[in-house]
Write a structure and sequence with these properties.
By secondary structure, the chain is mostly helical. The chain has one domain. Helix content is 60%, strand content 0%. Helix 2 packs parallel to helix 7, helix 3 runs antiparallel to helix 7 and helix 4 packs antiparallel against helix 5. The longest helix is centred in the first third of the chain and has 32 residues. The N and C termini lie far apart (64 Å). It is a multi-pass membrane protein. Its main location: membrane. Keywords: Membrane, Transmembrane, Transmembrane helix.
């Protein structure tokens, strides 16, 4: 009973004592996986930054399906960020390792489905317009679906020759494969010592800081676009919060 009151009860799920720095292959892989988690967080932060750039610099307001994809990007990012946060403490216990990559896998899988649904009209001639991503009820292209230039008439511009939805789908798919590859060796590398000073600490703290700033900015962007309304229009043309406050026409 005293253990329950003091919160000092030891359970099998408790974090084991951090061992000495392992110079063998498991330790090297563990540190490499920590760096990969930092890279994963930074990469998805960059993708979210690209979306904000298209929104505010290029005037490409995201459709509801794009906002859903951003939500899953944030979920994937937070999963890896949990691993980075634990790594800054010196080691990543197995439960935290699996929980972090599990959240990331859920976010990438669900985001891949959302992005794939948006990308289908571009990739499959004869497909129908999805619920988001089109400016009107007409099919993509000039006149009939697939009858015009690739991506012509679509909601938003092409990025390096591909629609943003296709890029998002590719990023989600690549992340799923990367997470699977990392989990293959997780049983060998969990709870291994990770340096808490020097480049490891700088990289982890920088990744978490940038992620926090971009997540905050994305939240503000969605709030500006939706205001106090529960749903976004299919083809948003204004920032609803500013319109409701009489600050824009």
């Amino acid at each position: 009973m005293s253990a329950l009151l003091t919160g000092r009860m030891t359970t099998p799920m408790s974090m084991p004592a951090i061992p000495a720095l392992d110079s063998g292959p498991p330790g090297i892989i563990a540190r490499a996986q920590y760096w990969f988690a930092c890279l994963f967080v930074t990469a998805w932060t960059g993708v979210l930054c690209a979306g904000l750039y298209l929104q505010f610099a290029e005037g490409e307001a995201p459709c509801p399906l794009c906002v859903v994809q951003r939500m899953f990007m944030v979920l994937a990012l937070l999963g890896a960020a949990h691993i980075v946060r634990q790594g800054l403490r010196g080691a990543v216990p197995r439960r935290d390792y699996l929980m972090g990559w599990g959240l990331a896998l859920v976010g990438c899988t669900a985001g891949s489905l959302a992005a794939g649904w948006q990308a289908l009209p571009y990739l499959l001639p004869g497909g129908r317009t999805p619920g988001g991503g089109a400016q009107s009820d007409t099919a993509y292209g000039s006149g009939a679906f697939g009858g015009g230039t690739y991506g012509a008439g679509a909601y938003g511009d092409l990025v390096q020759g591909l629609p943003a939805g296709v890029w998002a789908w590719l990023f989600f798919q690549a992340s799923v494969l990367a997470i699977g590859a990392v989990l293959v060796t997780s049983h060998l590398t969990t709870a291994r010592r990770i340096p808490t000073q020097g480049p490891h600490r700088v990289a982890g703290q920088t990744a978490l800081l940038l992620a926090g700033v971009v997540i905050g900015a994305s939240t503000v962007a969605v709030f500006l676009q939706a205001g106090l309304h529960a749903f976004l229009p299919v083809a948003p043309g204004r920032y609803q919060l500013l319109y409701d406050l009489g600050l824009s026409g």
